[in-house]
Amino acid sequence: MNAHALSDFLEFSAEVAAARAAGQPIVALESTIISHGMPYPQNVQTAREVEQIIRAGGAVPATIAVLGGKIRIGLSEADLELLGQSPEAMKVSRRDLPYVIATGRIGATTVAATMICAALAGIRVFVTGGIGGVHRGAETSFDISADLQELARTSVAVVCAGAKSILDIGLTLEYLETQGVPVLAIGQDNFAAFYTPDSGFKADFRIDAADQQARFLQTKWALGLAGGVVISNPVPETDAMPRAEIDAITEQALREAAAQGISGKAVTPYLLARIKALTAGRSLATNIALVKNNAHAGARLALALGR
């Protein structure tokens, strides 16, 4: 796509435009976590706090969404409120981007769509909660998140607390290996599991320091090895949920979703809401804590890449 065509679709906030002009490090943030990942008003409050953490870390936040037929790179307070409260916000992945832009719908970007939009905007670091992956029972349902295929093709580093624990994490890591997507771990050898620090599965490489992570990314892309990198940043132990408890609750929520015939895009929002109810809100507190923790790591990485 040429620069003229891109300008028809991309719209930068004043803060992000100034950062681009000055060569400042920028960190992309998704918007599905606002519209579908948390209830109001915690969703909007968390979005604001995560943006502030990135600013305090020396980088510029760029929350991404589709509004008014444009891919918006950087959102206003009013935009965040709209995404946080509007029942019309669509959950937008790769296949949905053209439709939402062409029809002028409100679109909240998933990991996959945010990676695409970040790459179009020249942003190489993206912070989220947890990536999508291979759903349990995928051997019969073929329910595999588009996030994994996007990681194989789009050259953006994704800082996350591992994969959501509602998924089949072993199969998710197998899929990433097949697609040649490196999985780095911070602070431990094992891959994180969203609500808990340790999934029980090893990551490919442990790289704790942001400058070494940046060197890994630069080397990968300089070699012509296109595609993303998963950077697994475990939720702090003080904010984590006990693994046995969250596993049992997840199994219950999965059984209930199956009994109600919930499938496709609706599964993850349903499970997150049900787990929140079954944990009396404790899972939401953990979710907020891990996103903030990822924002610190993402800001450090963006600064290191900029150097």
Could you characterize the architecture of this molecule?
By secondary structure, the chain is an alpha/beta fold. The chain has helices spanning 3-9, 14-22, 32-37, 42-56, 77-85, 97-103, 111-120, 138-141, 146-153, 169-178, 210-222, 243-259, 267-278, 282-306, and strands spanning 10-12, 26-29, 60-67, 70-73, 90-92, 107-109, 125-127, 157-160, 183-185, 205-206, 229-232. Strands 1, 2, 3, 4, 5, 6, 7, 8, 9, 10 and 11 form an eleven-stranded mixed β-sheet that branches. A hairpin with a 2-residue loop joins strand 3 (60-67) and strand 4 (70-73). The longest helix is centred in the last third of the chain and has 25 residues, at 282-306. The mean pLDDT is 95.
Order of helices and strands: HEHEHHEEHEHEHEHHEHEEHEHHH
Q: Give the proportion of residues in helices.
A: 40-55%
What structural category do the secondary elements indicate? alpha/beta
Please indicate the percent range of residues in DSSP E strands (runs of 2 or more): 5-15%
Alpha-carbon distance between the termini?
A: 28 Å
Instruction: Indicate the radius of gyration in whole angstroms.
Output: 18 Å
Q: Given the structure, what is the number of helices?
A: 14
List unreliable stretches of 5+ residues.
none
Kindly report the average pLDDT value: 95
Short key terms for the protein model shown above:
single chain; 307 residues; alpha/beta
Furnish the topology, listing elements before pairings:
Layout: H1 3-9, E1 10-12, H2 14-22, E2 26-29, H3 32-37, H4 42-56, E3 60-67, E4 70-73, H5 77-85, E5 90-92, H6 97-103, E6 107-109, H7 111-120, E7 125-127, H8 138-141, H9 146-153, E8 157-160, H10 169-178, E9 183-185, E10 205-206, H11 210-222, E11 229-232, H12 243-259, H13 267-278, H14 282-306
Helix pairs in contact: 4-5, 4-14, 7-9, 11-14, 12-13
